[in-house]
Design brief:
4% strand
Amino acid sequence: MSDSINQFGSSGASIYLNRAIDTLSSQESALEAETASGVITDSYSGLGNSTSKTLNLQTQANEVTAWQSNITTAQTTLTTTASTLSSIASISSALTTSLTELEGTGSQTQIAVIASSAKAALGTLQSLLNTQVGGSYILGGQNATTPVVPSETSLSNSSLASQISSVVSQLSTQGSDQVLASTLSLAADNDASVSPFSTSLSVTATDANSLSSQISVSQGALTSVGVVATAGEAATTTSTGSAIRDLMRNLMVVAALGSSDASSDEISSLAQGLLQSNTSVDKGLSTMQGQIGLAQNSLSTRATALTQISTSLTDRYSTLTSADLATVSTQLNQTQTQLEASYSLIADMKSLSLVNYI
């Protein structure tokens, strides 16, 4: 009789009890993990009916994170761009001072010093135009992997500088008006044999406006950020339309005066024309700096909005995935109580014999 009871215990009820214990143990482990992590499950499949909503929220959150990253990178670039434009504006300001001196009765020695300074400024300008952030040329627009001014030769020794120098050498015979017109035409020329800029930037100032780099800061929309070196307004009889092109031309003209034997009156007249041009340069550079400021403000506003969106998505995601710790604690206690009872029952069954029935 005892053998029959033990056989029944091991082959019947104990099997069901062991299965129940396995189930309860799994439940206990899951509830303990839920208590420790604070989330309902470590996989989307465990969310049941909330799976699709949770996946959608995660996708949206990833997009927001990507947009925030784009803004952070763009803001770093814009900060450097603003600093670069400020340095270029300083070159223009220094040139204006020099031109004011040339407008007077400068000596040959003074002209030579000013011309040498202009030549050195061309080297500085080239370095500034080729400023990089993270391997990208900040004034290169959409073609940011190519130098704005290819470095095979310096600006002061470029084809444009040579041709402008040739025109300036005829100042005494051609007159200042003709020299100003001819050098302006050369500066506006986009032919590869003349333009010192990269092929993609050797376009009109108005066409260059459309070449600014773009980033994604919202669903299905791109935002233009930064400025392009050769961008500006429509060309006129006194300007290429691009402040940086005009500045480059003005520096090259002054640099070419070092060997000029023109009279002081001719040089003074030339300086007056260049001073008028440099006034437009300062205005154009100010406009470019303003564009940078507007872009920075716009991105800051967008960044604030994205932070709010991110917070909202996080809250909604948390609502769907976070565990109700009070409820989980109650369930865990109940499960542990059931396990203890199951273990006790198995222990009692193992000690069960015929004696218990006598």
